[in-house]
Specification:
Order of helices and strands: HEHEEEEHEEEEEEHEHEEEEEEHEEEEHH
Largest sheet: 8 strands, antiparallel
Structural class: alpha+beta
Shape: elongated
Number of strands: 22
Number of helices: 8
Length: about 400
């Protein structure tokens, strides 16, 4: 597979697979020609390939690559050479292909992407990226693949696609539910590790805000090992809050960190893991009220910084070449007795629990309306402190502009 951001692939990337004789496998398939959308048999073959990948661990279909043939003239799955094909209008063809797939598969596959790579004037190879899916199994609903007597469900076994039997379809439903549970488990494990002090940096004993971004790739059966040695990616990984930032590689991946307002102790870090997931933790979230000495959560400010951080981290994951959807979750750890100051004149309540783990949110785009996605989570936080809902959205556009 080639793990690079959409729009950055080159013919040299594909040529390297050929030179290294990288064979077809569970997540890689070569095709010499693009499918004809006017030929039912060709469309059915495409739909079987795509759903087989989505129902397994995701993968890439590379069009415009011939394969070595054996003595019986059968393809061997080993790439032989580039065979670019002519395309008059790349954008129109991409839209037609993706629309055909989306309209012929149920449930729809989120995160499909297609790159056309120009090899010479007017001639291209193409890569169709199929992400792993939490909505599997996906069924073919159109064409020969949906006709009586033909299987509607396919699965990738090694370098081959095969019809799924009843037990495999049932297992796919269970696996999909298990992956969704894994998202929640990853948040719980991260929270437990932070509470136990098992963090890449010692943040001391303090209330901690945790933000976790988990791409679908990270919870697939075969998580990737990403290449994040790019300055453009690392520059997007600043901690949620803090000053005088630093950064370094570590065993888990790449780490950034910062000190708090005092300028002395470390207060925040962001960890990019090898599987593409991102964990950001900050202790620089509480303020002390004058006169009473009560600790309060500066949520009006923190909410904006959470959203900005999420937008940065999503951009980093996109640049790495990861797939959507991305699951985002927040945790507030060791906050018992903390207050939240909201509207002037409101009765102030203290939080009645040590930890709050918010339900994961699903982002099906790398450029979502993050304030809108986070609204249920922010309402839940305000409710934990005794308010009916978040006051942030009462200001409407002001809240959005501040982000």
């Amino acid at each position: 597979m080639i793990i690079k951001p959409p729009g950055t692939l080159t013919k040299e990337d594909v040529a390297r697979l050929i030179d290294a004789r990288v064979p077809e496998g569970r997540r890689l398939d070569y095709k010499q020609e693009l499918p004809s959308l006017d030929t039912p048999r060709s469309v059915t073959e495409l739909l079987r390939d795509v759903t087989a990948f989505a129902n397994a661990s995701g993968g890439q279909l590379i069009f415009g690559v011939s394969e070595v043939r054996d003595d019986n003239n059968h393809t061997t799955g080993v790439p032989s050479s580039l065979v670019p094909f002519p395309v008059e209008n790349v954008d129109r063809l991409r839209i037609r292909l993706l629309d055909k797939i989306r309209g012929s598969v149920d449930p729809p596959i989120v995160g499909l992407a297609m790159d056309f790579i120009e090899c010479s004037e007017g001639e291209y190879v193409a890569i169709l990226r199929v992400p792993p899916s939490l909505s599997a199994p996906h069924m073919i609903t159109e064409g020969a693949g949906a006709q009586r007597g033909n299987s509607r469900f396919y699965y990738r076994h090694g370098s081959n696609k095969q019809p799924m039997d009843v037990s495999e379809i049932r297992a796919a439903f269970v696996r999909s539910q298990s992956q969704q549970a894994l998202v929640r488990t990853r948040l719980k494990l991260a929270a437990d590790a932070i509470l136990a002090g098992e963090t890449p940096l010692d943040l001391g004993v303090a209330s901690k805000l945790c933000l976790l971004l988990l791409p679908i790739d990270a919870v697939s059966a075969e998580p990737p090992t990403v290449d994040f040695d790019h300055a453009s990616v690392r520059s997007l990984l600043q901690p949620i809050r803090g000053f005088a930032p630093g950064a370094r590689f570590n065993f888990d991946g790449y780490l950034t960190y910062a000190v708090g307002q005092s300028g002395e102790n470390l207060s925040s870090y962001t960890q990019l893991y090898h599987d593409g997931s991102i964990e950001a933790v900050s202790t620089d979230v509480l303020r002390i009220a004058r006169g009473t000495g009560a600790a309060y959560l500066e949520m009006d400010v923190i909410a904006g910084e959470i959203v900005k951080a999420c937008q940065r981290y999503l951009k980093a994951q996109q640049l790495i070449g990861l797939s959507i959807p991305v699951y985002v979750a927040m945790a507030f750890l060791e906050f018992r007795g903390v207050q939240l100051r909201s509207r002037p004149g409101d009765i102030v309540h203290e939080l009645d629990r040590d930890n709050m783990l918010l339900p994961p949110m699903v982002l099906d785009s790398f450029e979502p309306d993050v304030p809108a996605v986070f609204r249920p989570a922010f309402d839940r936080i305000w409710q934990a402190f005794g308010f009916e809902s978040s006051s942030l959205y009462e200001r409407g556009a002001v809240f959005g502009e501040s982000l």
